[in-house]
Amino acid sequence: MSSLTLRNLQKRFGRVEVIRGVDLDVADGEFVVFVGPSGCGKSTLLRMISGLEDVTDGELRIGDRVVNEVQPAKRGVAMVFQSYALYPHLNVRDNMGFGLKVRKVPGPERERRVAEAAALLKLDALLERFPRELSGGQRQRVAIGRAIVGHPDVFLFDEPLSNLDAELRVHMRSEIAALHKRLGNTMIYVTHDQVEAMTLADKIVVLRDGLVEQVGSPRELYERPDNIFVAQFIGSPKMNILPAASAAGFGAQPAGTASVGIRPEHLSIVAPDRGQLSGKVVITEYTGASSLLHVALDSGETCLVVIDGDSPEADARVGLVAASKDLHHFGADGRAQRNLHG
Ligand SMILES: Nc1ncnc2c1ncn2[C@@H]1O[C@H](COP(=O)(O)OP(=O)(O)OP(=O)(O)O)[C@@H](O)[C@H]1O
């Protein structure tokens, strides 16, 4: 098992700077998730850690060893890809054991490790099957098994579940969480999926344009985003951001507040004359467990509101209220103002 340390890590493809100086500490056994908009550099950063991409500048340590120049097979990492990358002509047993064979691990030891991983992943009954005879979830399990047999210090996952249907994703997500609990390895995981990030991570790293915007636990990022970008990136539907003047009805604002953020699930609907703000319902989207209302505020902005119970009709006038603890204040530079509610 291993910690990871990234210091001013940089990657250029030709003249394009893709990773522009990333500092990050990953503790031994931690589950870290990289999120960020498409093209921000999540996969590139993961591939640099794995050794599939070289490091342009900066320092990358795994444990206490600088691995910038160490070849992938000698870094003690194993990567699981979105595409599974199984060998179509090998059965499950041989797919899982292939890397060990290349590394000249003796047959009996190979058999033992494959059997151990197969038992862990409930693949015992499928060892003689070929990839084409497996479901998507089973293929992904084989890909994870192939990583496990190498006994890596660090597992790297690049959107491993994005080819699976919704139900299977949920199932595999809990299997990965259970695997982490069981093995206790350091894991780094790239995903586009908010729920995956929030449920799996000890620590989420929000990336934007090759730089880290914020690192924190899912709760820290949700409750105390450092800036508007993170505030709107974490949480779904995304946080409402209103100009300070339009949000004045919510109460006092720290000096220098330029905008106020409030999550759709933290707004409540009341009678129009009882609201801190008021407006008109434009659209209601019923999603089963809750409804999403689009409310046109009298100040001109549109606000999203999530409500559990019966939703007002479109065109109804409504009042909105929020608890002061749920308000986020941002300065003109988009950074969080911490001096009122911490
Ligand atoms: N081999 C390469 N040569 C040139 N540019 C590259 C190469 N690989 C990636 N890039 C660029 O680097 C940037 C980051 O790509 P990367 O795949 O790391 O982003 P990402 O955050 O994983 O995106 P996504 O969420 O869409 O998978 C993109 O602008 C991409 O076009």
Automatic annotation (TrEMBL):
Family: Belongs to the ABC transporter superfamily.
Species: Neoaquamicrobium microcysteis
Pfam family, one: ABC_tran
Membrane topology: Peripheral membrane protein
PROSITE patterns recorded: ABC_TRANSPORTER_1 (PS00211), ABC_TRANSPORTER_2 (PS50893)
A single MF term (Gene Ontology): ATP hydrolysis activity
Any one GO cellular component localisation term in the record: maltose transport complex
Localization annotation: Cell inner membrane
Record flagged with keyword Oxidoreductase: no
Keyword Ubl conjugation: no
Domain spans labelled ABC transporter: 4-234
Gene name of the record: ugpC
Protein name as it appears in the record: sn-glycerol-3-phosphate ABC transporter ATP-binding protein UgpC
Protein origin, superkingdom: Bacteria
Keyword set, alphabetical order: ATP-binding, Nucleotide-binding, Transport
InterPro entries the record matches: AAA+_ATPase, ABC_transporter-like_ATP-bd, ABC_transporter-like_CS, ABC_transpr_MalK-like, ABC_transpr_MalK/UgpC-like, Mo/tungstate-bd_C_term_dom, P-loop_NTPase, Transp-assoc_OB_typ2
